Amino acid sequence: MAKKEAKKPTSKETKQASYGAKDIYVLEGLDPVRKRPGMYIGTTDTAGLHHLIWEVVDNSIDEAMAGYAKNIRVDLLPGNKVSVSDDGRGIPVEKHKQTGKSALETVMTTLHAGGKFGGDSYKVSGGLHGVGVSVVNALSSSLKAEVHRDGYVWVQEYERGKPKYKLKKTEKSKRIGTTVTFLPDIEIFSKVEWDLKRIVDHLRQQAFLTKGVKIEIVDQRKLPAIYQGFYFDGGLLSFIKYITQSEKPLQEDPFYVQKESENIEVEAAFLYNDELETTELSFANNIYTPDGGMHLTGFRTALTRTLNDYANKEGYLKSKDDNFTGDDVREGLSAIVSVKLREPQFEGQTKARLGNPPARTATESVTGEALKDWLERHPQDARKIIDKCMLAAKARKAAKAAKDTILRKGALEGLTLPGKLADCSSRDPAESELFIVEGDSAGGSAKQGRDRRTQAILPIKGKILNVEKSRIDKMLMNKEIKALVVALGTAIAESFDISNLRYHKIVLMTDADVDGSHIRTLLLALFYRYFQPLISNGHIYIAQPPLYKIQSGKEFRYVYSDAEKEKVLKEMSKGSDKPAPGLQRYKGLGEMNPAQLWETTMDPENRVLKQVTVADAVEADKLFDILMGKQVEPRKNFIQARALSVKNLDI
């Protein structure tokens, strides 16, 4: 077919496409928020939706940290409304000099307006940028603010950020505080549905971080209402005990310190356990900093230096050449660090990393001084910790030797891909897929049925090593894991480099039975512990092979669940001229011939893939510990608590 020649624009069209001052739009008030909500709350999916609650709660937390609020309550109301109330001072209601409006309306409708940019209203606050509650107002179809202050209740309502009426002074009130009730705008959010567990987890965390403040949540969406409340006097000491409750601690007493240095309040707690992985949580002004920052760096430095000083002083180490590395002292460590400072510097509104250099020196000083004293006062715990670090150092050296055997100078030494890998011909990682297939039989079918240009097949035999119970040196001696590490191309541990990843889609393809689920879980544990960037960057997928093939005459369909099976059987049974449908149950991938495996599970046009994500790393870490770790009792309790809800159990 002849290619159409591009039409040249007419002079009239050129004039219409002009670009001048009249084409520059100035968004006023809260319009920028509605136009680009992602800039203010990160996303407009579930995470961004719940961020609205966090922003309003942060204002109440700020009142609590300033010493004015003792009670915070969140109500989930029918119709997806949310109400957040506190017994703080109440948002000011008098006329604001700059805006000519009430202070309440100014806070609710103006970006970067609040009590956090100067003066002594808030020495410490989490709502750093002053955009919190105004952003919630902008992204809500309706919002109502009620302020109990100066002996009265003051009320104002808004629609999509715009006031419906001027501030009203209503009935008398003896209490003080603020209540904000809002309904997220369905024009902004793809789905308005509150996740109670996510909210409860967040509020529990805030209660741990704010000593002596009661935080309640009441879910009134259905009757009877569900109530949960949190109050902790122990701060991070209570928090560290909570996150390690399923583990076997090495210490009898957790380490804990709370002290001010350089006008920065530092609170830290840690507990070593008999596991291999590390859990580190860091917060600045009660805001979780998933990427750490200066405060976490200061804690790590103090921990490594102080433990080395103690080990050398007590004669555990022969020379300074034997000193522990940062990785050595963090093996089996669960630690929480929280700082409260006047003007935190975060990376963006999502506050992922703290950048204040004084936070590092303050945390390092407070932690180092307190830990030195703690080690002297707890010699038995100190001995257990040093023994743990020495074992980690020994394993590190053994692991280095094992990794060097497999990985060092791989390209220069002509490191070859594993023989069982049927590689694809494409060398473009963006279009290349690696299928990790359970068993030689299924692997053979997959190799024959695949698209050889873009799809590589790596069969694994049986159940791989449980990495939750093994150190890296032992892990790399396992043939199946060794083959996988080499096939991925990224190396492992400190040698890991995601830029060398050979396939941007890594698909776990196991049978739809108990053994297949177990193998998949073992593989996920491996990826979570040693290749977590592959999960966080969206490279790991789970294939969904069909459970049944239903055929009536020449017509057949693959179905992926029992509910779908019943529906399809009914549909295919209609009509007297059709033979009764036959049902074939697939117990394993090996039962499918290459054409069937391609059509149902590998063909990009028809297949169903589930992308693996880690929405909550702490909860995922805890679950892997329970299900795959050394401790039997937590796993037993977990199974007993969920026994009645088990489905599709193969016996």
Describe the overall structure.
This protein has 21 helices and 22 strands. With 651 residues, it is of the alpha+beta class. α13 links the parallel β15 and β16. It folds into three domains: 200 residues, Histidine kinase-like ATPase, C-terminal domain (Heat Shock Protein 90, 2-Layer Sandwich); 168 residues, Ribosomal Protein S5, domain 2 (2-Layer Sandwich); 147 residues, Rossmann fold (3-Layer(aba) Sandwich). α4 runs parallel beside α7. The strands form four sheets. Strands 1, 2, 3, 4, 5, 6, 7, 8 and 9 form a nine-stranded mixed sheet that branches. Strands 10-11-14-12-13 form a five-stranded mixed sheet, sandwiched between helices. A five-stranded mixed sheet has the order 16-15-17-18-22, with helices on both faces. The longest helix is centred in the middle third of the chain and has 28 residues.
Report the uncertain regions.
1-27, 408-414
What fold name stands as the CATH topology of the largest domain?
Heat Shock Protein 90
Helical percentage: 25-40%
Total beta strand runs: 22
CATH architecture of the largest domain: 2-Layer Sandwich
Alpha carbon gyration radius: 29 Å
* Highest-level CATH class of the largest domain: Alpha Beta
Q: In DSSP terms, counting alpha (H) and pi (I) runs of 4 or more, how many helices?
A: 21
Q: What is the mean pLDDT?
A: 84
Strand content: 15-25%
Structural class: alpha+beta
Q: How many discrete structural domains?
A: 3
Regarding quaternary structure, how should these chains be classified?
A: single chain
Assigned CATH superfamily of the largest domain:
Histidine kinase-like ATPase, C-terminal domain
* Shape descriptor: globular
Largest sheet: 9 strands, mixed
Distance between the termini: 61 Å
